[in-house]
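In the design runs reported in the main text, the only information available to the sequence generator was the tokenized backbone. The following block is the verbatim input for one such run; it is reproduced so that readers can re-run the procedure and compare outputs position by position.
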């Protein structure tokens, strides 16, 4: 039997690249892991997810006026994802798996 892990540790992480859109109007990204929001930065980062089973990953952009570019994906075996919002600060974004090199 495995010993319990200390709080805040996990063996499984995903890499998420958040591409900055051309027109952001001061927007900042937020990543949600199974419905829990986490502030994020533009670029590539890693996120802890559940060790087994599928995990719901979402990203949306917000500024002080509205929220836009929301996208959600269920992560099973994929470990590298890329988020892209729409061209304008309206409508949904997309999360796609990236091939590993």
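Verbatim output:
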């Amino acid at each position: 039997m495995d010993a319990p892990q200390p709080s805040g540790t996990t063996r499984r992480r995903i890499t998420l690249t958040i591409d900055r859109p051309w027109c952001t109007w001061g927007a900042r990204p937020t990543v949600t892991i199974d419905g829990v929001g986490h502030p994020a930065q533009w670029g590539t980062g890693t996120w802890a997810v559940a060790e087994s089973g599928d995990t719901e990953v979402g990203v949306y952009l917000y500024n002080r006026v509205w929220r836009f570019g929301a996208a959600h994906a269920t992560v099973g075996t994929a470990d590298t994802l890329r988020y892209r919002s729409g061209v304008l600060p309206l409508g949904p974004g997309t999360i796609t798996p990236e091939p590993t090199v």
